[in-house]
Amino acid sequence: MSRQNVSVVGLNPVQNKPADTITNDDINPVVDTTTKEDLSVSESPKRRLVITHLVLNNFKSYAGRQEIGPFHSSFSAVVGPNGSGKSNVIDSLLFVFGFRASKMRQAKISALIHNSALHPDLASCSVEVHFQDVIDNENGTTTAVADSKLVVCRRAYKNNTSKYSINDRDSNYGEVTSLLRERGIDLDHKRFLILQGEVESIAQMKPKAQNENDDGLLEYLEDIVGTSKYKKPIEESAQEVEALNEICHEKFGRLDIVQKEKSNLEDARNAALKYVRNENELTMKKSALYQLYVANCYENIHITEELLADLAAQLEKEVENNKGNEDEVENLNNRYKEAAKELDNLEIQYKAAAKTQSKLERDAVQLTERKKHVVAKQEKLSKLIASSKLSISSSSGWMTNYDEELEKLTGEIDALKKNLAAEEATFEEIKTGLEGKTRGISDEIEKKKKLLEPWNQKINMKVSELDVTTSELRILSDKRAANEQAITEQEEKIKTVISNGRAKEKDLEEFKAELKHVEEQIRLGEVESAEAASTLESTRARLSIIRQKAEDARQKFAESQSQGNVLSSLMRLNDSGRISGFYGRLGNLGTIDERFDVAISTACPALNNLVVDNVETGQACIEYLRKNNLGRAMFILLDKLPQRDLSEIQTPENAPRLFDLVKPKDPKFAQAFYSVLHDTLAAIDMAQANRIAFGKKRWRVVTLDGKLIDASGTMSGGGSKMSKGLMRNKLVQEVSEIALQKIEAKYAESEQEFAKAQENVNDMEDSLKNLKKQKPKLELSISKTELEIQALGTHLLDAKKMLNDLKADLESNSANDKVAKSLEKKLAGIEKEIVQLREKSSTIENEISDLEERIMEIGGVKLRIQKAKVDGILQQIEIRNDRISIAEMAKAKTEKESAKERTSVTNAEKELAEVEVELRSVQVDLVSVENAAREHEHASNQTAFIVEERQEKLKEMKEDLDARMKEINAFRKSEIEIRNKIEAHEKELRENKTRLKHWSEKLTALSLHDVGDGQPLDLPVYSEDELSDMDKDVLKAEIALSEEKSDNAQIDLTVLKEYRRREQEFETRNADLKDAVSQRDAVKHRYENLRKRRLEEFMDGFGQISLKLKEMYQMITMGGNAELELVDSLDPFSEGILFSVMPPKKSWKNISNLSGGEKTLSSLALVFALHHFKPTPLYVMDEIDAALDFRNVSIVANYIKERTKNAQFVVISLRNNMFELAKQLVGIYKVNHMTKSITIENRELEAVIGR
Q: Per the record, GO CC terms (predicted)?
């Protein structure tokens, strides 16, 4: 009889997963059907898992260690009387496979421990299941696979706990069950286990489960076929499709509402778009204007930067040119002081010589004065005689000269009158040229002159009369006046002599007082000069200190500038008082020996962190940096630092701790330094660093050349470029630009103070020298003055004698006094008349002058010049007329004096003889004194020469020193001026950059409104040529006009935003709707695919199982029939599956209507059919043959023996028809309530059966 069998290709691993862990990706076909001749013959040998034996230790009825087995790889039977413990074999398997105690007919795990009279109180029990892989051979035998043994053990304790192990390794429930599932044992559906009384229940299952907690035939088959994994995804997909349908309807409704709202905004949106386009035009104009501003700023910045570069180069050149000048000035000053000291010693020597010389000179002066007086008298007398003789001889010559002069003056007057006529003609021509402008004025002048002419004639007549009378009176009065003049002159001479005498006496007193004052001033000057020199030295010392401070400040400022904008900006902020509690860079707040500079710079980059008092100051600094976009900085908050113990620690090899080497500027900064340095040690070299770092305790160590070993052992640092300069060996105070300016100003003030002190010392020294020079001069002046006073006494006696003689002459010449008085009276009358006439004519003259001045104003400079020429000629004529008058009077006077001179010559010659005798006596005495003076003069002159030479050299040194000081002061002044210019340009540069930033920000802030017309939204960037063609004022005007239009427009711009929002909302809603529909369709498609796959896979497996069921039942019953039917052929999952059976020679019946044996056969047929569809390596059956007759038991036993060689069957049976066919018999028996077992290999029986 030929049969078709189903061969299992293999299950996908997903089938061993719980149903709730299946994903869509795990869903794939489960089985593949092929046709084979027999299930017992496989295409090729395959490994399968079998149980070799069981080891039970105090488990249930098994006391002590009991080994059950070995089991045959295909068919083993467990036999024994009822109550002997056969079913406990199955319980032992369930125990190891992880089932609960209730599945083993016990309430709790501890009840599984053996309990009998001999073993009443055992602590635990255990079961070991020994597995092994085998390969089926073609001759029906099996071959064990080497190294494939597997021992799974479970141990239970009295406290109801249990432990698992795999191959003597501790394990857990999850690992054990996963391992068994992987090896093919169906723990989920328990198909490997068919218990007593349960075999019929398989076939009696309902077509479909009534609820979730129930099982039906449909669910049972679906689990085996593997389509149950689709149930939950299908249900979830159906729910998702329903939910997405609702979402689609909701989104469609919302889309319709948005469409209506968008349509209502169209008109307002169009009006707003027009306004926005106008706004875009305004923005474009603003962009052009702002770009023009930005371009101007860039140009200004470029020019300013070039100027700054030139000034910096100029400053550098000035500094280079004046390098070393201050040291040279210091050397010059020292040399000057030494030379001045030597000069003082020489001057002392010179003073002694000068004193002696002064006495001799005073004696010589006295004699010289006497000689002068005598010589003067001699000369005077000689001159008097000579002059008198000359006067007598020249009187006649003068008379001739006066006549010639009168003739000459008369001729010159005639020439001047001719010249006057020419100039007056020119003057008139100029006036004629102005006739159009001055005709009225000229006519008026002519009228006035005609009115003035009669008065001028009268005045001229009186003036002529006055001149005649005056001449007569002058002749009379000259004679008397000459006598009186002589008396007056002599009286004046006496007065002069007296006055001179008194003046000389006063001078003498003044000289003496001045000499006393000079001596006092010399004494005070020497004291003050010493004090001034001391002051100069202290001022020089202060200047040197301030100069050093200024240089340090410049260096510090340069360093702070090199540290970037962050520190300099915060320093300026702190100096301005806008923040407090900012201390600057940490590295500047302490000092360290320069030997450790590289070490600390390498070990602590955090020295560049900035130190502040508290969080508020730190936040203010950060906000300032952020607001001004100056960069970032790390801050150390003093109030947040933990207060650590800063005392010295014991270190390996007494290596210094960097923290202990730091000297903080203030103790409050110590915690800040420790927070960044900690206990870092300094080593001399790498060898010492390695010894310290890797000792018993790990240390952080840095070498002096910058190699760092961290506490973790990592090394860094070294290389060609070492870190250094983060800390100095002296305190570095941060200097801001404001502070630098103050120091520079103080330095300039100190320089001025020093220059003033230097000048003061020089002035004092010069004054003292002048005073010392004045003293001998004053002493000589006193001697001279005393002699002059004596001489004036003699002159006074002579003058008085002469006065008496003149007065006697005056009394003898008083006869003409009455005539003179008459002429004087007449002269007074004439003068009175002239005054009256001039008063009457002055009004007309003033009017003429005013009119002429008006003409002058009209004529301008040319007319005034010509008028000045005319007036000048008139003045010259008048001068010559005066000279003629004088010459005439001098001629008369000369005639009178000639007689007087003859008398004077006689008297003077007599007196001259007496004076010559006195002169010879004085000359003898003077020669004697002069000879003595000359002897002393040589030494004095030699000393004076040396003094003068040294003074000249000292003066040259002083001039050189002053010149150098002047150069230095000029350099300093120039330096300050250049720095001020640099500062001004830098300020201008900052202002331009600020303006650039302002206009750039305003330019960046500009943006075009998106009107949705596809035009680019980027503002145009204009070139330099385009910007140069633009007119700033035109742009401003256009912007103002556009802004005015915009301000007057009443447009609601929110409508654009609202319309755009509605439009976007519409697009979003539409996209959401499309996405929702697409998502729904995708889920729906997945849902349909899942249902289709579930149906196809299930129907495929269902067909195979149903076909094999029919075959199995026909074989077992010898002619019966059985099949699985779909209650609903269109949807097998709606109503479930019916198991229909037609026993041999009977009609079709529902399985529930069969007898017990028929139910058992039907169930076994289904079990065997399922085994062919999805084999499991192990079957344990408990008295499944109890309800079968002899014939059916034999059929089932033979089937198990012959047709299921690809699995291991362990059957518990009391029917010999069953166990006699088994390959291995395991006998179970009980003695004293303790179960034991014995195993028999069924060879003899097999042989009998075979014969």
A: condensin complex; nucleus
